[in-house]
Amino acid sequence: LVARMRAFGTTVFAEMTALAVRTGSLNLGQGFPDTDGPAAMLDRAVEAVRSGLNQYPPGPGLPELRQAVAEHHKERYGLAYDPDGEVLVTVGATEAITAAVLALCEPGDEVIVFEPYYDSYAAAIALAQGVRRAVTLRPVAGRFAVDPDELRAAVGPRTRLIIVNSPHNPTGTVFTREELEAIAAVCLEHDLIAITDEVYEHLTFDGTPHIPLATLPGMRERTVMISSAGKTFSVTGWKTGWVCAPAPLVTAVQTVKQFLTFTANGPWQAAVAYALRNEMAWVASLRDELQAKRDRLVAGLTEAGFAALRPAGTYFVQADIRPLGFTDGLDLARRLPELAGVVAIPTQVFYDDATAGRHFVRFAFCKRDEVIDEAVRRLARLG
Ligand code: GLN
């Protein structure tokens, strides 16, 4: 393995899911729902396979999906993208992010990420031989917040890119307009390109709006906006994502993407195009159900003795383990199957600053109510 990838090993999600399977524990670690997406969308995928949509789709993606993504962004955010040239379909958001970083980061360029950061960003930056600069989100009044001074201090002459993930995994923070304005100001002042990871765009609670960075003045031109179907339609295994950006940026990403995977799966693209056009009411009810599950898990964790933060988006809760007498989340996550028959994700693995997230673990609530209830019952043993 090349030196720059040696630090990565197996992802924490794979490690913790394997631990759950091995120990028969309830898996509130890896974020995937335990119920299916809308039935009519699943039928569309089956029909697409049966009707012979089984050869290479066009490299940029099926026209109907590119069109549906463009319509979605226009209707929902007022953002206009040309489906021919400004929209690219990828193998999930993961490929989109990696292809974007590989396309836009020269060796030695600096890339800003907000820590705790989703694990694939660090790997993508390493693949591109870029240099990661983490800006720490700090818990303030019950949410992990951006500190604009820390952000400004992280920018230097080699900074080229900033990766912005809102709603944010693993904290559940939804960036406020003020936070996004601070990010936009830095991008404009230092001529940075933003790569936005908006895979949880539809999963925000209590009416919290999701504001795409590209909607801020001057940002559409310099933003590579990424999302995918996995979270929105509860099909994390479909790995169907998309990039929207001005044509030169999309062309750059596509130049890389064509040699990573060439194209993405046809049948899922057809089904996702259908879902974007016809299943947004289903998504709204998913969001409402998730909000209730969030409250259920936060109440249960609080009862069990954790100090749980109530997230404004995503399907993750951050729980402070100190009130239970624990200090190290990684150690606790590894022992949790034996202590309680539950699996969680240690938050500290998403930080460069090893001390910053040490006393937090992440629990996922995209699970059936009976799974959440049983997990909470088991976790009550910790107290
Ligand atoms: N995004 C999911 C999570 O945060 C996991 C994805 C993965 O396993 N790589 O739990």
Please explain how this structure is put together.
The structure is a single chain. The chain is an alpha/beta fold and 383 residues long. The protein has two domains: 3-37 and 281-382, Aspartate Aminotransferase, domain 1 (Alpha-Beta Complex), CATH 3.90.1150; 39-279, Aspartate Aminotransferase, domain 2 (3-Layer(aba) Sandwich), CATH 3.40.640.10. The protein has 13 helices and 15 strands. It has a seven-stranded mixed β-sheet, with helices on both faces. Helix 7 links the parallel strand 7 and strand 8. Helix 11 (280-304) packs parallel to helix 13. Residues 11, 13, 30-31, 169 line the site of glutamine. Glutamine is lined by residues 11, 13, 30-31, 169. This is N-succinyldiaminopimelate aminotransferase. Belongs to the class-I pyridoxal-phosphate-dependent aminotransferase family. Its cofactor is pyridoxal 5'-phosphate. InterPro entries: Aminotransferase_I/II_large, Kynurenine-oxoglutarate_AT, PyrdxlP-dep_Trfase, PyrdxlP-dep_Trfase_major, PyrdxlP-dep_Trfase_small. One of its GO terms (molecular function) is pyridoxal phosphate binding.
Can you give keywords for this protein?
7-stranded mixed beta sheet, Aspartate Aminotransferase, domain 2, 15 strands, 4-stranded antiparallel beta sheet, Aspartate Aminotransferase, domain 1, 383 residues, alpha/beta, binds glutamine
